[in-house]
Amino acid sequence: MSSRLKVAGWVALGAVAGALTTMQLQANARSTLSPLPLDEMQQLAAVFGLVKSDYVEAVDEKKLINDAIAGMVSGLDPHSQFFDKKTFKEFREGTTGKFVGVGIEIGMEDGLVKIVSPIEGSPAFRAGLKSGDMISKIDDAAVRGLTIDQAVKKMRGEPATKVSLTIYRKAENRSFPVTITREEIKVQSVRAKVVEPGYAWIRVSQFQDRTVDDFAKKLEDIYKQEPNLKGLVLDLRNDPGGLLDGAIAISAAFLPKGVEVVSTNGQIAESKASYKADPDDYRRRGGDDPIKRLPAALKNVPLVVLVNEGSASASEIVAGALQDHHRATVMGAQTFGKGSVQTVRQLGPESALKITTARYYTPSGRSIQAKGIVPDVLLDETAEGNVFAALRTREADLEKHLNNGPEAEESEARQKAREEARQKLEAEYAKRAEPPKPLPEFGSTEDFPLVQALNKLKGQPVIASKSAVERKAEAKTSE
């Protein structure tokens, strides 16, 4: 399997496993506990004692307890997780959109790290790195053979520390070293542009702390360029989700005030809720309402929402709400299908528990768990058809996902189907002189789904997929 095919098919897995965090971080774990099963607790204590006394070498007690907690939680579902000091820090970085690094958005191609885009104003941007540059070494360590996560960890670090990168610039056919000083980076989760007179594109890549503010500012800039906007494409492809208030706010930008955006339901009282297109349901405590600044015309501008298999969680909420209220045409591929809610409860200064507390439902009452949002118009990735779609992981492929019946045979069938699809793709591309090209960058002139979305807005013919079919939901167990 070529490295290019492997990466394009699987690199999104880490992203789509991200949580929809609906409730604010709890200061402490819930104090009211059910009676503990004493016999089982004694057994747990006995195992702890035996490992500590009899294991071949000394074990760290704190690590042993943390591993026990992590194992307990990981057995629940794919999205519940225990955060130790390191993983809790990484989680908070993900939701705030801040981290310490060099400031590049990356992918992988032919085993090397490819710079998709330097973040404007970042150390990498100031060092002159460009889209399409390839990173072959990080601090004299070869990149080939590393996963994308391993490469990211090598480039991140402490503020004011240096990292050396070896860059290959294909356009100039040369390699050169660059030494960059790490600093705090603020991720831009929103990109936008006027693609042609009267029509604009706005992309949300993740729902983070600053997403709503950035979204409002980008739309204000669009309306300054195009005060009589004829159509807008909201691009949620490969958006793994994030914070619920961001999803509600962005939905509210297009919907009438007070209509339902999403509802949640779970075992505890606070998980039974209905969230509406109202500032009270998305505005941070004491904070501003950026959505209020947007032009009134936005409520009625013709709208297309682009989604794909990597659109998950909060992005599915937005797509589902706009679809149910007939506010937008949803186009693309069936989404990931993560219809569960996670709450983060802090256990101590440096540890926390992310636990699934509810399922969420679109305004019409649909649960999309293990199914996803089915677009109104199904599109292929390229004009030639789907390249990597068959290989992408979805919620229904994750072990212990919610809302499935006896699944041993189902899981084996899914794995078998995916392996057959992979082998078919390998065989097709083996006949070609060159390996498959990476998919065009979202928002570029070669972006086939975006072209079809613009055609829809302009009333021109749309090339719908001839091969994509709806995936049915997983069988439900009794609840």
UniProtKB/TrEMBL annotation:
SMART domains: PDZ, TSPc. It holds the Pfam family Peptidase_S41. SUPFAM superfamilies: ClpP/crotonase, PDZ domain-like. GO terms for molecular function: serine-type endopeptidase activity. Residues 401-423 are annotated as: Disordered. The keyword Signal applies. Residues 411-423 have a biased composition (Basic and acidic residues). Residues 1-27 form the signal peptide. GO terms for biological process: proteolysis. Its EC number is 3.4.21.102. Keywords: Hydrolase, Protease, Serine protease, Signal. CDD domains: cpPDZ_CPP-like, Peptidase_S41_CPP. Gene3D superfamilies: 2-enoyl-CoA Hydratase, Chain A, domain 1 (3.90.226.10), 2.30.42.10, 3.30.750.44. Belongs to the peptidase S41A family. This is Carboxyl-terminal processing protease.
